[in-house]
Amino acid sequence: MDRTDIRIEIPEKAKYIIDTLENAGYEAYVVGGCVRDSILGRVPQDWDITTSALPLQVKELFRRTIDTGLQHGTVTIMQGEEGFEVTTYRIDGEYEDGRHPKDVTFTPNLEEDLLRRDFTINAMAYNDRRGLVDLYDGIGDIERKTIKCVGSPMARFGEDALRMLRAVRFSAQLGYTIESETRDAITKLAGTLEKISAERIRTELVKLLVSDNPFELREAYETGMTAVFLPEFDRAIETEQNHPHHCYSVGEHILHSIEMVEAEPVLRIAMLLHDIGKPETLTVDEQGITHFHGHPAVGENIAKTILRRLKFDNDTIDKVSRLVRYHDYATGKHPDEKMIRRAVHKLGDDIFPMFLQVSRADIMAQSTYKREEKLEIVDAWGDMYAKIKSEDQCVNLKMLKINGRGLIEMGVKPGPSLGGILDALLEEVLDDPTKNDETWLKNRAQELIEKMQE
Ligand code: ATP
Ligand code: MG
């Protein structure tokens, strides 16, 4: 690829910011991820701008700005609803635990700003005036499909250990290989990831998991990084399975299962953790066959511990925990509609479509032994769930055609007995959806009230 031929279509609003800065006598470029992604024909997530102007000089030129990280040189410029991060050229010192380096020196040279960036493919800048600025052969590394540090890998990972995990994340997103000197440095310094905050690790882990090649998590294991932030996964990789249904170690099975679900955080994390209870529940029988009795429940607790440690939000923790707990709930169960309604009530309607994906992915990552039969069962669950949803059948208290207020109007006192009556009514409706009828429910409630008063 000839660098001078490269043209990047900068969106209007970003172009306006660059032009405004340049017309005021400063330099300004789009930089980093958006340049890389544009060259690759991928849609950039956001357009970051780098400039020779100091933060206060940037602020003078625009009407609506947000002080995102003034001491680190970052001002967000609002254009309508959209925000653009504009950062002054800077030289970074060592990174601290947080998102930013400890000390920052501003510099008038673009060259120095590019030098502080992590990988060659992330260290390119572009504007319409000067074209592509690629001082560290980012284009060459794109052509070679290589993740390579700018400068000495040992030094760069020494400044900020998170870059090691970012290397694997980019290799997973782009399908690239980590250059050997860069990879060697990771294997030497993997332990220093321990200094990095849980939030920063979580961000990179999730990007890795929802990428096109989540199997690359194996590379984080091989280089010694998961031992630091996910030692439970190392144990899974090291736990063999000797069973006709399986052809991989627990960890290898997990890796294969991750790519079988849609690229969405909750689903991918659920696959990562679905069998995490196996190492702790391992038993081997006289025939040498491995068993993992009770692993979903044990796994749920381990999953919660891991997700809290990595500072995941409560909604993710709640959904993933339930998926781990019930991941094999459909196994070997030929369903009828009543069974499905009860399962939806138990697992939650909110995660049920995900649960079906988890069930299928789990099977697809096992040996081919009895695969067709196992998939038929999951298909039957899916078909019946679709029917129940299309008929809007009641699967929880919210959908019951009588509620607490209705019972109070009938004379029930607020309290545990009220909840008890609602639960009893729901039980009957789960068995027979035609009973979700206001008149029928009121009559039945009346009977239950009278029975309680006897
Ligand atoms: P994404 O598509 O995930 O946003 P990105 O390359 O834009 O990928 P960001 O984390 O948004 O990654 O960072 C923007 C740019 O800032 C990077 O391309 C890189 O040049 C630089 N950068 C980010 N984090 C670091 C870091 N820890 N060390 C050095 N440079 C970094
Ligand atoms: Mg970015």
Unique bound compounds: adenosine-5'-triphosphate, magnesium ion
Please describe the biggest sheet, giving its number of strands, its sense, and whether it closes into a barrel. 7 strands, mixed
Alpha-beta classification: alpha+beta
Distance between the termini: 87 Å
For this structure, what is the CATH class of the largest domain? Mainly Alpha
CATH architecture of the largest domain: Orthogonal Bundle
Radius of gyration: 28 Å
Task: Provide a quick synopsis of the model.
The protein has 454 residues and is an alpha+beta fold.
Task: For this entry, give a set of tags.
454 residues; alpha+beta; Beta Polymerase, domain 2; Hydrophobic Seed Protein; Hypothetical protein af1432; 4 domains; seven-stranded mixed sheet; two-stranded antiparallel ribbon; 23 helices; 13 strands; globular; binds adenosine-5'-triphosphate; binds magnesium ion
What does this structure look like?
The chain is an alpha+beta fold. It folds into 4 domains: about 5-135, Beta Polymerase, domain 2 (2-Layer Sandwich); about 145-230, Hydrophobic Seed Protein (Orthogonal Bundle), CATH 1.10.110; about 230-390, Hypothetical protein af1432; about 395-454. Helices cover about 50% and strands about 10% of the residues. The strands form 4 sheets. A 7-stranded mixed beta sheet has the order 3-4-5-2-1-8-9. The chain has a two-stranded antiparallel ribbon with strand order 6-7. It has a two-stranded parallel ribbon with strand order 10-11. Strand 12 and strand 13 form a beta hairpin. The protein is globular, with a radius of gyration of 28 Å. The N and C termini lie far apart (about 85 Å). The mean pLDDT is about 95. Bound molecules: adenosine-5'-triphosphate and magnesium ion (MG).
